[in-house]
Amino acid sequence: MSRTTTRLAPLFCVLLGALACSPALAAGFPEKPVTLVVPFPPGGATDTMARIIAKGMGQRLAQPVIVDNKAGAGTTIGAGAVAQAAPDGHTLLISSNTTFTVNPALKAKLPYDAQKSFESIGLIGTSPLVLLANPSLPANSVKELVALAKAQPGKLAYASFGNGTTAHLAGEMFKLVAGVDILHVPYKGSSPAMTDLIGGQVALSFDTNVAALPMLRAGHVKALAVTSARRSPSLPRVPTIAEAGYPGFEMLPWITIVAPRGLPPAVQKTLGKALADTLADAAVRADLEKAGVDVSYEPGSFYDARVAKELPLLRAYVHKANIPLE
After folding, report:
1. Sorting pLDDT into bands at 50, 70 and 90, what band is 27?
2. Looking at residue 1, what is its pLDDT?
3. Any long-range contacts for 65-70 (C-beta under 8 Å, 24+ apart)?
4. Predicted TM-score (pTM) of this structure
5. pLDDT (0 to 100) of residue 26
6. What's the CATH fold of domain 31-126+253-320?
7. Which tens digit of pLDDT belongs to each residue from 204-240?
8. Would you say the C-alpha torsion 17, 22, 26, 30 has a positive or negative sign?
9. Where in the chain is the domain with CATH 3.40.190.150?
């Protein structure tokens, strides 16, 4: 061995050691259980999806994926916590566009930036919102509801699963296009909102397919319309609000899993494959579709374009509806 080689040998060892330890190589990922933060209370739509997906991803990652509910402030508590977590792939967030476009449209200050704080692992699919009513409400269609609301301005109330959520914005959009005066009552999650709708404390609610389907099947509530542009496959007999006489109306929650920005490419690739393989599993898809999710996987690379397209549209709605920024 030459003197030059001898002198350089320690340097090679240092470099090789650094490469071996480099997070970009993600040699041992995941090294421990992965936490999947749900920014809603247990029992709601996102929580239901998270538990189905966590099981499948855990099997493919050979590490448990643990669901951690961090509810509050219209998803900002959970989203803020993930934004500040180490970008090593062991802390993820599952949420809807409530977090990524609705909150930025409605709130002046957030503990995260939808595009700078996160990068997506992949889109899971969509879950249309449903305009629900207590069975005792004397309205069985959007047309009848609008007539009732106009006859009793300020008397009817609709529940949402929180201020600054897709359900909140859908309700305000409906008030705007229909020209009705109905009161918004925000709840800390879907479960308490549904409880009060069933109990008659509120007459109306905007909630997800996932939360609505079991209650509809049991006859505890009735569906007047869905907020998607097209009818939902899981509720084919329920018309859209657009069909009911308000063309162009659409509020379609989409659900994605994100990680803190700065994720090593190899880790992102591993997580993305685990999610894609999970959603390709026929049993998982069946469970999600039974729950009310329209599964439509997209790679994480589509996330930035979705946010960039949707956010200005929602900000325009907020301005038009004269909703004050929080």
Report:
1. low
2. 46
3. 65/33, 65/34, 65/35, 65/36, 66/33, 66/34, 66/35, 66/36, 67/36, 67/38, 68/35, 68/36, 68/37, 68/38, 69/37, 69/38, 69/40, 69/41, 69/42, 70/37, 70/38, 70/39
4. 0.81
5. 54
6. D-Maltodextrin-Binding Protein; domain 2 (3.40.190)
7. 999 988 889 999 999 999 999 999 999 998 899 999 9
8. positive
9. 31-126+253-320
* Residue 108 pLDDT grade (very low, low, confident, very high; cuts 50, 70, 90): confident
Q: Does residue 98 contact residue 258 with C-beta atoms inside 8 Å?
A: no
Backbone region of residue 169 per phi and psi (left: phi > 0; alpha: psi in -120 to 50; beta: other values): alpha
Please list the residue range(s) of the chain that carry CATH number 3.40.190.10.
129-226
DSSP states of 274-307? HHHHHHH-HHHHHHHHHHT-EEEEEEGGGHHHHH
Residue with the bigger pLDDT between 298 and 323: it is 298
Structure tokens at 274: 């685990």
129-226 maps to which CATH number? 3.40.190.10
Q: Are 243 and 232 in contact (CB under 8 A)?
A: no
DSSP state of 50: H
User: Is 211 within 8 Å of 179 (Cβ atoms)?
Assistant: no
CA dist., res. 197 & res. 45, Å (int)? 16
